[in-house]
Amino acid sequence: MKQLALLCLLATSAIAQDGEYQLRWSSIMLANNRQSIGIPFFAPGRRYIPLDKLDMHENSVQNFRARVFTYLAERNFEEATAWMEKMTSSYPKEHGFIGESYLSRLHDYPRALQHLQAYDALTASFDDMIGNNPVSYLLGLTYRSLGDHSKAINHFSIGIDSLSLKHGAEWVNYRHFVSRAVSYIATGQAEKALTDLNKAAKNYSRSALVAYHKGRAFQQLNRLAEARAAFQDASFFYKALRAERTGDYQEDNDNPVYEEEIDEALSQLKQSKP
Amino acid sequence: MLHASLTNGQIREELTGTWIGVHTELDTTFTCALPTYIRLSADSTYQLGLVDGSAKSIQSTWAIDGNRVRLDTIHFAPQLVTVQDDLLRIGSTFPMVFRRFTDVPIDSVSTYQQLSGRVWQSNNLIVSLYANGQISLENLHTKERTAHFWQLATFEHSVFLIIFGSQHNRAGGYKPLWQITNTLPKQMQAIGWNGCSVATETFRLVRILSPNETCQPAAFQTCSTCFQPLWNTTPLSYTSRQYELNKLLSNYYQPVSQKEQSGLLTIKFVVNCAGQAGLFDVKGFGDDYCPKAFASQLTDQLLSICRNYIAARSFLHPGKESDDLTRDTAVSLTLRLKDGHITDILP
Question: Does B77 touch chain A if contact means CB atoms closer than 8 Å?
C-alpha cells in the first residue's frame, strides 16, 4: 500500500506537459495584469460600461457600438437591435453603421434599407462612406438581397461610374465590379458582366472570385471552352490562396465562393460537350 | 490592503511569504483554477511554480520600488498588487487570486490511505475518490457531477489534493486545489475555494466505494476544466464549413410551412474532445426581435440535424496534435426563417 501511495505521489510526469503549459500560462497572465487594459468585447461581465444602463454621459458612440457588438456576439438579438435603434436617435450618422450591421450581421434587408436610406438622405448630393464602401454600394447589396437586381445595378453604378469617370477604373474596388457583374448575370446580361469582370481582373489578377464569375458569364453565353478555362483558373487561384493564407479565408464576404462550388461547376462542364 | 500610507517596509512584510493559487477571474461569472504558487522570500528571491511540482519552477527576484511591485521582470502599475484578508490579488483586467500559505505538516501516505476509495461530503460538494485515480465532484445545489483524475502532492510539509483532467484524459487543466489540514477516520478538513470563498471545509465520510463502481459524469462534460463557449466558437460562416452546412440543411431540413414560423433561431452546442455533443441551447426571436418559441416540429428537426450531422462532422473534431487532446468546440448557428423555410444562415 505504501508503494502505491508513493506511486500516486510521483505520478506527476503524466501531466508534466500540462504543468508546463499552466506555468507558462500563469506567467503570461501575470504579465498581462501588469497594468489595467481595456476589456475585450467578448468579456462582457468584466466590462467598464454597464451594458444595460442608458446614461447620456456614458453613451458615447463607442459605448453604443460596444454594446451592439457584445449583444450580437452573445446572440442576444433583442438587446442588440434595441440598442441599434436607440443609437440612431442620439447619433443620426450611425444610421450607416446600423444599416451595415442589419445587412451583413443580421441579414435583415428591409431594416438595412430603411437605415441606409436614412443615412444617404443626411447628405443629399453626396455618396458617403460607411467603413470601406460608399452607401450606394451597400444599398446595391441590399436591393440585390431583396431580389431587385435592376435597382441593385443602379446603385452599384453610382459609386463605380463616378469613380471610374473621375480617376479611372483602376481606382474602383474590384469587389464592387464583381457585385455588379453578379447582378448582370442574374438579369441575363452576361456581356456587361464580362466587361466588369475584366476590369475587376485588372485590379486583382489572382482573384478566384473574379475567375469563378467569369466562368458563370461565359457559361451563360454558351462559350463553354472559355467557361472551363475560367473555372480552372478559379480553382488554381483558390488553391494557391489557400496555401498562402493560414486559417479560413474568403475573398469577399458579400460574394462568398467555395472551392466545392468551383469543383462542381467544373465537373458539370465536363459532362456537357464543349 | 496595500496603499500609500504603508511604508515600503510594511508592504514588503505583507507580501513576503508563499501564496497558493486560487483562480484567475476571466469574467465576473467565470474563473479558472490556478494550480501555481508564488513564493516571495525575504531575501528577494521570487519563485513561480506548480503546487504539484509537475514543471520546473521559475526562479528570479522581486522588489518594491516606490509604489510599484516588481515580480521577476514584470513591473506592476501602482495598486495592481494588493493584499486583503490573506488574499493576494494581482491585476484588474483578469485578476489572479492567491491565498496565503500556512504549512500544515501531515503524513501523505496515511492521508492517501484515508482518502482513497471513499466518498466525502462537505456542505456543498460530494467528492468520490476512486482507488484507480479517478475522482468525481458533485455540486449538491446544481446536481452537476463531473469526472476527473486525482493525486496527492506534497508541498513543503503539507499535502494537497490535486484534481485535474476530464473523464477522457489527464490533460485539460486543473480544478481548484485543496490543502488537506486534518484527517480523522470519519472526517477530513481541507482549505480551498468552495465556490464562494476560500475556506476550511469539513468533509465527512459518506461511504466506502465498492470496487465495481466506476467514475462517471452525470451528463455531458467538456474536456477542458476551463471552458468558455464564446472564446472557443468555431466559425462556420464564409468557410468550407459553411458550404457543408448549406448542403446539410438543404438535404435534411424539411420546411415546416406555417405562417408564424418566421424570425431568427439560434442553436448553440458544444462538442467535446471525444466528439460528444451537449449543452444544447435554443433561442428564438420573431421578425420584431422579441423572444419567441418556434414550433417544436421545427426546432426538434434542427436540433437533430445539429446532433446527428453537424456535431458529427470532421471539421469539429480535434486532430492528433497534443493540443487537440483537450480541445472542446462551441458551435453557434443562427438561421433566418420565413414561414418555416430557411432563408439565410447568419455569420
Answer: yes
CATH value at residue A199: 1.25.40
Contact between B289 and A8 using a beta-carbon 8 Å cutoff? no
Long-range contacts of A160-165 (CB under 8 A, 24+ apart): A162/A127
Check residue B80 and report its DSSP letter. Answer: S
Give the residue numbers spanning the domain of A226. 191-274
Q: Name the DSSP class of A104.
A: I
Residue A28 grid coordinates:
503570461
Q: What is the pLDDT of residues B33-75, one digit of tens each?
A: 999 999 999 999 999 999 999 999 999 999 998 889 999 999 9
Q: Which residue of A has its CA nearest to B159?
A: A9
Average confidence (pLDDT) over A172-198 = 97
Is A168 inside any structural domain?
A: no
A34 to B264: CB separation less than 8 angstroms, yes or no: no
- The pLDDT, as a whole number, for residue A12 is 36
pLDDT, position A6: 34
SS3 A181: helix
Contacts of B344 in chain A (CB under 8 A): 107
Contacts 24+ apart (CB under 8 A), B203-206: B203/B120, B203/B121, B203/B122, B203/B125, B203/B127, B204/B120, B204/B121, B204/B122, B205/B118, B205/B119, B205/B120, B206/B118, B206/B119, B206/B120, B206/B121, B206/B126
Interface predicted TM-score (ipTM) of this complex, two decimals: 0.89
A201 located within any domain = yes
For residue A216, give the C-alpha cell. 458563370
Angle at A105 between CA B289 and CA A249, to 5 degrees: 155
Cα A200 to chain centroid distance, Å, stands at 18
pLDDT along chain B (347 residues), means of 10: 65 94 90 96 96 95 92 94 94 93 96 95 95 95 94 96 92 94 94 94 96 91 89 80 90 90 96 90 96 95 93 65 69 95 93
Looking at the DSSP assignment, which residues form a beta bridge with residue B68?
B65
A126/B contact by beta carbon, under 8 A: no
pTM of the predicted protein model: 0.87
Helix, strand, coil shares of chain B as percentages rounded to 5? 15, 40, 40
Q: Give the DSSP H or E segment for A113.
A: helix A109-122
Does the pLDDT of residue A7 top 60, yes or no? no
Domain count, chain A: 1
**Segment B9-24, tens digit of pLDDT:** 888 999 999 999 999 9
Strands (E), A12-123: none
The proportion of chain A whose per-residue pLDDT surpasses 90, expressed as a percent, equals 66
Kindly state whether A18 is in contact with chain B, defined as any CB-CB distance less than 8 angstroms. yes
Q: 32-71 in B: which are within 8 Å (CB) of A? A: 34-36, 48-50, 52-58, 71
Check CB contact of A2 with chain B, cutoff 8 Å: yes
Does any domain span residue A257? yes
Q: Do B165 and A37 touch (CB under 8 A)?
A: no
A73 occurs within a structural domain: no
Compute the mean pLDDT over every residue in chain B, rounded to the nearest whole number: 91
Backbone angles phi, psi at B286, to 5 degrees: -75, 180
